[in-house]
Structure formats: structure tokens, C-alpha cells
Amino acid sequence: MKHHASDAHTLAAAYALGALEPGERQDFDAHLQACEACRQEAAEFEATAARLAAAVSQPPPAAAKAQVLAAIEGVRQLPPRIPVLAPTHAPGSLLRRRAVSLALAASVAAVALAGVAVWQTQNGQELRQQAGQAQQQLDAVSTVLAAPDARAVHGRSANGALTTVVTSQRQNKAVFTASDLPAPAAGKTYQLWLEHDGAMRPAGFIDGDGTVALTGSPADAGAVGLTLEPAGGSPQPTTDPLLLMTLSA
Fold first, then answer.
1. Do 234 and 206 touch, CB atoms closer than 8 A?
2. C-alpha to C-alpha distances, 13 to 33, 95, 220, 238, nearest whole angstrom
3. Contact (CB, 8 A) for 108 and 18
4. N or C: which end of the chain has fewer CB atoms below 10 A?
5. Rounded CA separation 68/79 (Å)
6. 5 three-state secondary structure
7. pLDDT by residue (tens digit) across 67-116?
8. DSSP string covering 24-46, please?
9. Across the beta sheet with 151-156, what order do the strands follow?
10. CB count, 10 Å around CB of 22?
11. Is 1 exposed, middle or buried (0-12, 13-18, 19+ CB in 10 A)?
12. Are 249 and 220 within 8 A, CB to CB?
């Protein structure tokens, strides 16, 4: 895929997550030598991708290996796949199709988490519901990370958690990631907020370490807040903010 020189600044996210073709990566490496802004942005996206993967990764259950080995002999091997040449697409279409690749770290972790759920429950309906929710969350995260105008800001909450917010004005969406966030006390929950002209609007919840897509519209929001609220949440913050992170313009 060919890009004009003015398009190079939109490829930091794809570069950081290994989604560029070899020729594009070589060109962007050369661009980084002369562009301090893109070097910083690529480094921030690399850190964000690492946090996304670490936040949702889970160790497999102890019984998983034994159950897999016991089932191998009864599983039929699939026939080999024969690659089909894909038709040529316009650059914009190809960039949009890279949305899943741009969220590779998050998607791999989400698939692993779904696999853990398979070993933990026999309820098919519950599994389908969990898989659907995980896919919706992954789609929301992928959409933001794949946006050419995605921007990341980093912060630390009052209780020591490392946080990242990735926003896209074009998509009017935002993603919040936390690591080292202490578990809330019984009867409490972490609630997220978007600040608009001094007013705090509910933007979702996060239980602990993890990644969530914020609800509501981040357009024109000045900051993202985090408070500890009663279980179920509050229409307005009832405690001092643990985090009030200013969003980039």
C-alpha cells in the first residue's frame, strides 16, 4: 500500500503494533529519524499495547493441559487451507481492514480469556453471552486503536494505578486501561467519568486491572475521571477523584 508523505503521521499506531507491510515499515523507520512527534507517539502506542495485553491476560486453569491432551485423539484434523488471492483494495479500505491487527495484543488476550471460560463452565448460553460481550468490547477497543487520529495520554491514580486513555475524535470514542489498580472494597466499584465544561458525566465502570471502552461521548471532553463509588454507581461523583486526567486537544 502506498502513502503520500503527509499520510506518514497517521501510521504510528500501525507501526507500534507491527501492522505495516515491510516496505511501509522501512519507509516509516526513515520518517521516524526526522519526526520527533511520531517517535513519541509510536513509543506511547507500544506502551499502551503492552498494558492492554497485560491487563486482560489470565493464566490457564491447572486442568486445561490434561483435558486437552485427553481430547486430542478424538479430534479430527482439519484439511489444509489453500490460500485465495484477495482482490486489490483502495488504501483507505485496506487501512480499515487492519483494525483487528492494530488491536492484536488485546485480541490475543481476549481469546485466551474466552478459552479459560470454556473450562470453567458447562453452560452454553452463558458461554455465548460471555463471548458476545468480549467481542463487543474487543470491537470497541479495536475501532479506537485503528483510528488514524488515535491519541494516547498516560497518568497515575491517587492509589498508584498506571492508566492510559486512547481517544479518537473521528470515531468519537475512548478506551481506558488501568494496571496495578487495587481491588475495590466490598460494596464499592470504580466508576469512570467524562468532564464536560466542569460537569462530570458517567462513562462506565472498571473492576480492577483491565481495559474498557468508555460510554458516552468524549467529544469536547476536557478530562477523564475515576472515583470509588457505591456498587451500582452514582449519577454524580460522591468521593474525591482518584484520577482526573486531562485529554489531549
1. no
2. 17, 11, 23, 37
3. no
4. C
5. 20
6. helix
7. 666 666 666 656 665 555 544 444 444 444 444 444 444 444 444 444 54
8. HHHHHHHHHHH-HHHHHHHHHHH
9. 151-156, 162-168, 173-179, 210-213
10. 7
11. middle
12. no
